[in-house]
Specification:
With about 425 residues, the protein is of the alpha+beta class. About 50% of the residues lie in helices and about 20% in strands. The protein is built from twelve helices and 14 strands. The strands form four sheets. The chain has a five-stranded antiparallel β-sheet with strand order 2-1-5-4-3. A five-stranded mixed β-sheet has the order 7-9-10-12-11. Strands 6-8 form a two-stranded antiparallel ribbon.
Amino acid sequence: MTKAATGKLEERALLQAAFRSFDEAAQTLQQSYDALTARVEQMDVELAHSNEALRGQLGENEAMRTHLNGILDSLSTGVLEVDDRGVIVRCNHAAEAMLSAGASELRDRRVLDVLGERGVAVCDRPQRFGQAVMSISRVPLRNASREGSSHLILLQDVTRLYQLEEQLQRKDRLAAMGELIGRIAHEVRNPLGSVELFASMLQRDLPKESPVKQYAVQISQAVQSMDRLLANLLLYTRPTRMTSGWHHAELLIHDSMKLAAHAITKVSVEVRLDLDKDIPMLWCHEGQMKQVIVNLVVNAVQAMSNGGHLTISLHKESSQTLGIPAVRLAVSDSGVGIDPELRSRMFDPFFTTKDDGTGLGLAIVHSIVEAHQGRIDVESMIEHGSTFAIILPHPSATVIAGKGQTSENVQHELSDGEPVGRG
């Protein structure tokens, strides 16, 4: 065989070996590609499962976030979230309502500035905030990543609790004063009767032209004035048991206004009545309730020495106020208002800011309302007027004590005989 032929055979053998190597490499590459494709498909399935789980987790997190936001906004306590710079980053609806500002107005502002503009601050003691009493406290907000880096400002309306504490203190104080007053009134009234008797005898026996007779008249008038004062004292200290009944609300209020006419006519006062026609009757002691209305009307008129508006309103009250069906009888004026520092003492006997006052009017009002198992609330703002609201039981669906009748029966019997209310 020639050298050229031998060379061609070697080249052919090398070429065949190269093809075999290429075939083997291509086969290996195909196998790797098939394996990689299977792995990619498996990873696609795993990724789909992971994405599904992540979507489920995100959905749960969003539902939890919505739920927590709902809880936060449902709280009656105002909540301000503040970062480590003292800047508000979040607030709930209660905080917005208490501070009279929207979330956009509160966010990104320093909390001390927001509170300072409203005359309050973070403090351990309750603070007056308009007509309310607020408790403003600070608690740390802790989390896993930044413990103590931010905090919460909690705003709580403790007005009702504050009022209950005041009422409890007042009851204890008035109980001791009432017992002392009652004893003194009884002791003074007995000799006072003797003085009145002898003054009357002197008026009768002295000649009409005698100058001494006028002294006897003045003694008699002074004794009668003192007797009226003692009668008020005894009314304040008398037992709280009384006989109540159904009385026409509008008629009772009109009669009370007539009794207070001596005060109303002295100044230019516009009287307004806002009476709910669905409340034609009041369950009360007629005479004592008239005295309550007269005292409140007279006080309201005296608070408007330059004239103003006097409003008497009667509306339904939430049953949650007294725990039973109730009505709200309110006397409002546009007068000078009451100093917040004096409100805790204004129902104390002998406490008065008037030069000619005895300090018994509001004390008697409070005593009568308490005897009716009711409550009296006061709202006042300096130079804007005051509102005295009497919350009275209105037993529309309860058995009237001692009568054996329900108020529905009483209303039915009244409607058979005479019209309920005045048109």
